[in-house]
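Notebook, p. 212. Picked up where the previous page left off. The plan for this session was modest: take the two constructs that came back from the sequencing core last week, fold each one, and keep the raw output in the notebook itself so nobody has to go hunting through shared drives later. Recording the first one now, exactly as returned: residue sequence, then the structure token string.
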Amino acid sequence: MGYAPLTLQEVARRIREALTDPEGGEADAWRPIREFLDDFRAAAPEVRQAMIEARPEPTGDPRFEAYLAALAEHLAVHHGLRVPRWVEEPGRFLDRWWFPTRFRSLHAMALVESPAAFRRRGIFVDHTELERC
């Protein structure tokens, strides 16, 4: 059996495992996202839709629920794919803004640079967040 690229469903499962692992945590939850971005970039165009299409199960953290939806929407829009329906679910939006960086000095830049799919969910990232794709 050959290599299969990560899907957002698998990413969500790995995030959930990292967040519930007493030795893991939020820092480890970012690893599958980075791996997914690498896989997405390397995937053939006809494979990319399948990587974002299936609804990810809950991760246990509303911030990551919104982040995965933003990521799927952003990638779909920028790569000419269908935006999956699950990205519009109410649980895929945050009530409070989230800056997934520990550096407050980057917040102003993130407010300006964050892609629309992230901003509309209350997530603010700088331009380097998605450079891997």
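Okay, moving on. Second construct, recorded in the same format:
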Amino acid sequence: MSVVRRSHERGITTLALDAPERRNALSAPLVGELADALKRCGEDDDVRAVVLTHTGTTFSAGADLRDPPHPDALVALLRQIVELPRPVVARVTGHVRAGGLGLLGACDIAAASHDATFAFTEVRIGVAPAVISLPLLPRLDPRAAARYYLTGERFDAAEAARIGLVTAAGEDADAVLAPVLDGLRRSSPQGLAETKRLLTAKVLDTFDRDAAGLTALSARLFSSAQAREGMTAFLERRDPSWVR
């Protein structure tokens, strides 16, 4: 059963994460299927840009704790979005947590409706936002990143726009995106590809420098005793042992 829904209209391919019963969590199958769909978009001359969105009320709840992707696979997916020779635009009308925020960081443009909420919840289960920091830290306001990384607090779409997590927020994400998609349709494929290359150069430098170390950190943390307690507590809907 497919977990990524594809549609195409006037040069724009939309890829919708379609596992709402799992809150579009980043499972190994979802990450693999999304990577395959993006690869096809990058090879298709009819695709001017890609919109990454979701079904259900959650864009992505982060890593699927029951069937997580290998950290290497998540790094590869994030880098693929950054390197894709087509602009990738996130359309968010629901909640985004933990690893799902890495997808937003990798996208070139992101629009969110006022219904969207965001949180870096890794610290609350005993791990850190390691791999997703590769595209996020070059884009986020440093003081805001420190606050939300360390506390796991939830914040709204207006705050997400203020700190650089999303490009713009509004009552209707489609209304926010309408002029963006019109502009992309009016732009040449060569112009878009080379301009994106300029814009993502510093993000890719971060991947080249830090990917191996952050992947190792992620693997170490997820295999730790505190992470096992944190994930068990999450699945059992209780506070972990360290909560005071």
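Notes on construct two before I forget. The chain is about 45% helix and 20% strand.
Flagging for discussion at group meeting.
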